[in-house]
Design goal:
The protein has about 375 residues and is of the alpha/beta class. It is about 40% helix and about 15% strand. The chain is built from 14 helices and 9 strands. Strands 1-2-3-4-5-6-7-9 form an 8-stranded parallel beta barrel, surrounded by 8 helices. Strand 6, helix 9 and strand 7 form a beta-alpha-beta unit. Helix 1 runs parallel beside helix 14, helix 2 packs parallel to helix 3 and helix 8 packs parallel to helix 9. It starts with about 35 loop residues before the first strand and ends in a 10-residue tail after the last helix.
Length: about 375
């Protein structure tokens, strides 16, 4: 991978025709061990609105671009009052209007929730709006509870949808590449915007398409990503015990492809830096209380730090919170830097995708700046 290669340098590690592999391998900035990226859930805190959260997402994107983070992803979640990212494609289109060089993508879109043609059209549109900057990260989980997933999919057969993930992925890829074989029932159907516009008489549409990533929190997607030679991103931030085994399985399963000639694995990691370590602790405690409520069937807005500090945790709830906090890197910038370095050393991750687990938008935004400072990132890539 490249190291501080200017404002847009990257090493794709192999690319397919049309540039599908471009931008996968990012630039290492400053003294960071690997490229750093951002995962934003557009968290909605108590006393705040979804509009507040989404405006903060724009500011995070601007900061990420200016400081040299490689990409920013948003994730699909449903029926969760504290998460405003139910429509990743809509949010990404908005972020594209406020950025110029930052890669943008889904971390991820839950493929079983949608028809592959619809995803191909949405992300083909995003590619047209922000050429060469779009990642399509795909997961097979519902991104919500079973009842909501059934409402999304219009079926009660939720496991069937997950089991068909490889077939759905193959169909989506063919729509993106516009290469169904002759005689296939979809051979005359084209995802637009897409490559068909470049092969039509008089067409000048670029054949480039979004980079496909597989996302997961277990071994299934790790093995599939390896077999297909695709980049893989593991959800360390909520499945830390499975990180090392899943990455090992990905690397063992990897077969070179037109997209990648060697494995490339990122991990999602919850991290929050603040000048005052106690402030960081109070903020992540608020996020932990919100997660506790979600996991016990009481989803709501992210509580305030004051509410979390006053909450009477039962012994069982305290055990959950302590376990959750153990996988969040938080504290002053140097503590966070040390924790991230240790995580890379332990997992061998090729990239860290950082999500800030906090109630207060300004704290989340400031954390990305402080982490960039801790690694000596440029103050403004464009100015440099």
């Amino acid at each position: 991978m490249a190291r501080d290669g200017g404002s847009g340098g990257s090493d794709t590690g192999g690319s397919s025709s049309g540039g599908a592999g471009d931008g996968i391998r990012g630039t290492v900035r400053g003294s960071a061990p690997v490229p750093l990226s951002v995962l934003d859930l557009a968290g909605v805190g108590a006393g705040l609105t979804a509009g507040d959260a989404l405006r903060n997402s724009v500011e995070i994107a601007r900061t990420a671009e200016a400081r040299g983070y490689h990409r920013m992803w948003v994730a699909e979640h449903h029926s969760m009052p504290g998460v405003a990212s139910s429509s990743p494609a809509v949010i990404l289109a908005h972020l594209a209007a406020f950025t110029r060089t930052l890669r943008l993508g889904s971390g991820g879109v839950m493929l079983p929730n949608h028809a592959p043609l619809v995803i191909a059209e949405q992300f083909g549109t995003l590619e047209a709006l922000a050429p060469g900057r779009i990642d399509l990260g795909l997961g097979r989980a519902p991104g919500t509870d079973g009842a909501t997933a059934a409402a999304l999919r219009r079926t009660e057969s939720l496991h069937e949808g997950a089991d068909e993930f490889p077939q759905q992925l193959a169909e989506l890829t063919r729509f993106l590449d516009d290469d169904f074989p002759g005689g296939h029932r979809y051979a005359r159907i084209h995802a637009v915007p897409g490559p068909v516009q470049g092969s039509t008489a008089g067409g000048v549409q670029s054949a480039a398409r979004p980079s496909i990533w597989l996302l997961g929190s277990s071994g299934f997607s790790a093995q599939l990503a390896g077999a297909l030679g695709l980049p893989f991103s593991f959800a360390h931030h909520f499945s830390a015990a499975n990180t090392v085994p899943a990455l090992a399985l990905y690397r063992e399963s990897f077969r070179p492809s037109a997209v990648l000639d060697r494995p490339y694995a990122s991990i999602g990691v919850a991290a929050l830096a603040a000048e005052d370590p106690e402030q960081a602790r109070r903020q992540v405690m608020a996020g932990a209380l919100g997660m506790l409520r979600l996991r016990t069937g009481r989803p709501g807005l992210i509580p305030t730090p004051e509410e979390a500090a006053a909450y009477p945790f039962s012994p069982m709830e305290r055990d959950f919170v302590d376990s959750w906090l153990a996988n969040i890197v938080h504290g002053d910038p140097e503590t966070v830097r040390t924790g991230l370095d240790e995580l890379v050393g332990r997992t061998g991750a090729d990239e860290l995708v950082i999500t800030a687990n906090a109630h207060t938008p300004a704290v989340r935004l400031r954390s990305y700046d402080l982490i960039a400072d801790a690694y000596g990132f440029p103050k403004d890539i464009a100015a440099g």
